[in-house]
Write a structure and sequence with these properties.
The protein is α/β, with parallel strands linked by helices. It has a single domain, classed as Purple Acid Phosphatase, chain A, domain 2 (4-Layer Sandwich). Helix content is 31%, strand content 22%. It is built from eight helices and twelve strands. Strands 3-2-1-11-12-9 form a six-stranded mixed beta sheet. A hairpin with a 4-residue loop joins β11 and β12. α7 packs antiparallel against α8. The longest helix is centred in the middle third of the chain and has 13 residues. Bound molecules: zinc ion (ZN). Zinc ion binds next to loops. The site of zinc ion (ZN) has 7 residues, from loops.
Length: 240
């Protein structure tokens, strides 16, 4: 089975469509949360994911947008975007977000937004934190998002190594457990503004990261038109 693995789409429809095209053909879509927040098209993104039958989990922005999580810990721009999103989304988007679990299992993979031991908030940025999370999931492997940075954490003989995949990077899965981050579709933060996604082939046991350009300026215009914070629009230019 070929799986398009997506995370942190953040209401960015052009980026989502570009990544889906770049990962095709695939059999299913798994998404790792933060479907909404920051971007200008939350309803459109949820409609697209619903239409293609995407399965997955909720992120902190999704939870906040439906009132299931306080925005106290959000920075000002993130909070403003959550408030805008919350006021803007329609009932079907709200219901779809409400139905997302914090954690799910698909075959050999556990899906969470942040980390297996703290799905909503913890950032998996380092080998030490990844190592501390290895006991928090039962499956062989785990898929996470939240950092907006493509990453691999691989357990080997008690150590955890960290790899930073770029466009076209691949990984063969073997007996070593891995925690994989596909990077962010709608708001990359690794200095590469191109949208990011990951193709997982469960039969071959292989993974590949792909980056794809999308019309950033069109998204920025939509954000300006609805008065989303300027800094959130500007960062899309730099992927930071
Ligand atoms: Zn996010």
């Amino acid at each position: 089975m070929r799986v398009a693995v997506l995370s942190d789409i953040h209401g960015n429809l052009p980026a989502l469509d570009a990544v889906l095209a770049a990962l095709a053909p695939y059999d299913v879509v798994w998404q790792l949360g933060d479907v909404v927040g920051y971007g200008p098209q939350p309803d459109e993104v949820v409609a697209r994911l619903s239409e293609i039958g995407a399965r997955g989990v909720r992120g902190n922005h999704d939870a906040a947008a439906i009132g299931a999580l306080s925005t106290d810990a959000f920075n000002d721009d993130a909070r403003a975007a959550v408030e805008w999103t919350s006021a803007r989304i329609g009932p079907s988007t709200r219901d779809w977000l409400q139905a997302l679990p914090e954690r799910s299992t698909e075959g050999d993979f556990t899906l969470v937004h942040g980390s297996p031991r703290d799905p909503v908030w913890e950032y998996l940025f380092s080998s030490a934190v990844a190592r501390a999370n290895l006991g928090a999931f039962e499956t062989q492997h785990c898929l996470v998002g939240h950092t907006h940075i493509p990453l691999v954490f691989r357990e080997d003989d008690g150590h955890v190594e960290m790899l930073s995949p770029s466009d076209g990077s691949g990984l063969e899965l073997d007996a070593r457990r891995v925690i994989l981050n596909p990077g962010s579709v709608g708001q990359p933060r690794d200095g590469d503004p191109r949208a990011c996604g990951m193709l997982l082939d469960t039969d071959e046991g292989s993974v590949e990261w792909r980056r794809v350009a999308y019309p950033v300026e069109a998204v920025q215009s939509l954000m300006a038109a609805v008065d989303l914070p300027v800094r959130l629009a500007e960062r899309l230019t730099f992927g930071w």
